[in-house]
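TNFR-Cys domain-containing protein structure dump, as promised
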Amino acid sequence: MTLICVFCFATDPATTYSHQDPTTGETLLCGSCQPGTHRVAHCTATTPTQCAPCRENHFTALWNYLPRCLYCNHICIQNQEVETECSPVSNRVCRCKPGYYLMDDFCDKHSECGLGYGVQTAGTHQKDTVCEKCPSGYFSNSSSQLDSCMKHQECGNGQLVLLAGSAYHDTVCGLLTSLQDGVIVLIP
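structure tokens r here:
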């Protein structure tokens, strides 16, 4: 068998393919079709490979000699949204909606950091929320996917600490106003 190169403009193996001409029996080195197109007819000893553009909702991402383009088969399902729409050169790309992350091919809701815990790292499309226990001097009194631990307030200007802060609540400050019938009145 003889290898014939007709209309070969590139020597990169990714942009060429071998084809046996059914009329002559010769093996030809044909030019591949560029991404976004597909093969309509193989090359011959006198004509180059004929290519045509992909139709709507179809694509080819690589140099190819496919008889038709591939169908854009990625469908964004529950808790997903389109990141990149189908184009002649790429399939549709889906990602998790805000508030969700990819786990085992499904989009799970980001974890909430509970009382006494704050967000160390907010969740992304690819990773869950990372929580941390509030350190001494900080608190979190809510369950949240976004809130970090907050610093305890400091009592000032003659205020007293009525309730010391913890990991779950802020410091409560107040003023001693008067002594009525042996009872101390505190105003927060």
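The longest strand covers residues 172-180.
lmk if u need the other ones
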